[in-house]
Design a protein that fits this description.
Length: about 120
């Protein structure tokens, strides 16, 4: 993290649980922004914001236009997510894994499995 300090113009924070944002603020360049998408209780040291003229913004979710722009950007720059594909029939097992914190990636349900 220290090697990347001050190198980012923008950080997109999508962490969906309570967390401390302090480790991420030094990554921002002078006067740059971290956008927090979603709702989660967070902690932040305002001194780090003030001295670096750094900005934290927030949004519940973008609209259709913004979502499409984000998807287009990701496609253009080959930004992908890691997911674990599951069949609909395995949804109860997947839920049990979530409750046990045994999930490395987001689950995506294969809708083709509904035909079987």
């Amino acid at each position: 993290m220290s090697a990347a300090a001050g190198r980012f113009d923008f950080l997109l924070n999508t962490i969906p649980v309570a967390h401390n944002m302090d480790p991420y603020i030094p990554l921002l360049a002078l006067g740059k922004t971290m956008a927090v998408v979603g709702v989660a209780v967070t902690e932040v040291n305002t001194m780090a914001l003030s001295f670096g003229r750094k900005i934290i913004s927030g949004s519940l979710i973008g609209g259709i236009k913004e979502t499409q722009e984000m998807l287009d950007f990701c496609a253009k720059h080959n930004i992908v997510s890691d997911v674990e594909m599951i069949d609909m029939q395995d949804i109860n097992h997947a839920y049990e894994r979530v409750m046990k914190s045994d999930v490395k990636y987001r689950f995506v349900i294969d809708m083709q499995s509904l035909k079987g």
